[in-house]
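Hi, here's the filled form for the chain we discussed.

Project: internal
Contact: R.S.
Residues: 206
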Amino acid sequence: MIYEMAAVGGHRYIYSHLLARLAGTNMAAAAETLQLATHASGEVAVPFLGATFLASRQGVRRADGGRFLDADGSVIIHYLLAAGPSHPAGHFVTLAELAGPLFKQGSYSQSALERPVVERFQGRLPELLTTAAALGGGEGGEAALGAVSLIFELLPHIPLQLMFYDRDEEFGARATLLLDRNATTQLEFEVLAVAVTRFVQTLTKA
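And the returned structure, exactly as it came back:
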């Protein structure tokens, strides 16, 4: 599975393979479907992980010239190749619910993705809010009692919700990651898992 290969550095091969597919893509059509901006150069702008990525038939680059992981480039290309319907449901579900049996078979678990958030931000709620803002996130959505709810766009039209419960005298800190119920109509779950993993790594600066 794609997200399993990411754990062992298999994205160099995946990224190279996807570049070949990108060369035959109608970028203008993909940009129109996904409601993405197209630069004068013909490159399509895709916001991801607090940065803007520019994609063309020749490849992917960051608008600021910064370096990025092959996994990031792979997610961007998958997103453009799929060019799925851009209609979020407005209802969030757990990754396990979204994936079904796939999640149990994979090498990642929801708790493994949420644990780094807890370890990084427990007792540091103001820092979480500042870091979230740098990634384009902010408070919103329905929050459970005692939780702060943060809404991000994992990718355009794919909302992600992070509910964070800071530690108190009775309970330890907890975090819950949720995706829009329609996310898998735009990207297959394996690619979403990679994108969420990279989101967590960027949020926690792992």
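Let me know if anything looks off before we file it.
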